[in-house]
């Protein structure tokens, strides 16, 4: 069940919140139209996570306005993806965000205390894949997950990934991030009993086709339990992995 709705219902059950106030929380204005954006306040109620700002192609002024409205309506932690350094500096003049340059991520507020069912491993084929990996890892941490980073453990030297079998075997979810031929997803998928979320990256020479070769390799993986997100989509992988790591038993 959605954690936000569950918390409201638990508060009513425990006498901490009246039925009337619970209804007000559930019926409150679902979004606000600020001309250039319609900000979804019920995202957290529906999905358990508040709206995330996609920073690419937005001006710093637009993002400042969106953040201001989010804060006014009770969203005290905000994730901004694909945020340029220049825009981040302008936003910092108004809102106290922390900027992670490698990942191109901005975060307002503190990272959540990890409350997932286990650990999420983020593994990359090479060092060049780290920016996408950091987008995934920081998304996971923002959403309340304990993250283990295993970088530069690609198939060009299999001993490197085999040296981390304990972390792989004990993971709740594994995100594999690789360009070139994208083989890391199949290798890890064949070693673990947990879900694997594969991210093809646009790293590689001409025939890698800016990540298409890795995407097709991952889609054609013979290892069971491997799912694939879009090219360079570290955020999507992190979000999906977090959902898996927070699954409840449904009775």
List the helices and strands and how they pair.
Elements: H1 3-13, H2 19-27, E1 31-33, E2 38-40, H3 43-47, E3 53-54, H4 60-72, E4 78-81, H5 85-92, E5 97-100, E6 105-108, E7 119-124, H6 130-142, E8 146-150, H7 158-162, H8 165-169, E9 173-178, H9 184-189, E10 196-200, H10 212-219, E11 226-228, H11 234-245
Helix pairs in contact: 1-2, 4-5, 6-11
Structural class: alpha/beta
Give the domain tally: 2
Distance between the termini: 10 Å
Strands side by side in the biggest sheet: 8-7-9-10-11
The major β-sheet equals:
5 strands, parallel
What's the CATH class of the largest domain, please? Alpha Beta
**What's the architecture of the largest domain, going by CATH?**
3-Layer(aba) Sandwich
Query: Shape from CA axes?
Result: globular
Instruction: Kindly state the number of beta strands.
Output: 11
Q: Which stretches are low in confidence, meaning pLDDT under 50 for 5 or more residues running? A: none
* H/E topology pattern: HHEEHEHEHEEEHEHHEHEHEH
Would you tell me which CATH topology of the largest domain applies? Answer: Rossmann fold
How many individual helices?
A: 11
Fraction in helix? 25-40%
Provide the residue-averaged pLDDT. 87
Say what oligomer this is. Answer: single chain
């Amino acid at each position: 069940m959605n954690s936000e709705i569950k918390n409201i219902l638990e508060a009513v059950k425990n006498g901490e919140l009246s039925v009337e106030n619970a209804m007000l929380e559930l019926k409150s204005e679902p979004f606000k139209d600020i001309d250039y954006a319609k900000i979804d306040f019920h995202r957290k109620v529906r999905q358990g996570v508040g709206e995330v700002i996609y920073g690419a192609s937005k001006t710093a002024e637009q993002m400042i306005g969106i953040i201001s409205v989010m804060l006014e309506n009770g969203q005290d932690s905000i994730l901004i993806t694909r945020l340029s350094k220049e825009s981040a500096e302008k936003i910092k003049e108004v809102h106290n965000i922390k900027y992670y340059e490698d990942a191109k991520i901005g975060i307002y507020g503190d990272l959540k205390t990890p409350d997932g069912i286990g650990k999420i491993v983020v593994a990359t084929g090479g060092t060049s894949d780290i920016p996408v990996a950091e987008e995934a890892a920081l998304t996971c941490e923002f959403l309340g997950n304990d993250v283990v980073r295993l970088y530069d453990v690609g198939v060009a030297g299999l001993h490197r990934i085999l040296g981390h079998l304990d972390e792989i075997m004990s993971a709740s979810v594994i995100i594999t991030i690789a360009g070139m031929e994208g083989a890391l997803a199949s290798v890890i998928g064949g070693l673990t009993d947990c879900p694997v979320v594969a991210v093809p990256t646009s790293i590689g020479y001409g025939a890698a086709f800016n990540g298409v070769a890795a995407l097709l390799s991952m889609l054609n993986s013979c290892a069971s339990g491997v799912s694939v997100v879009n090219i360079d989509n570290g955020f999507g992988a992190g979000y999906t992995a977090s959902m898996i790591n927070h699954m409840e038993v449904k009775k």
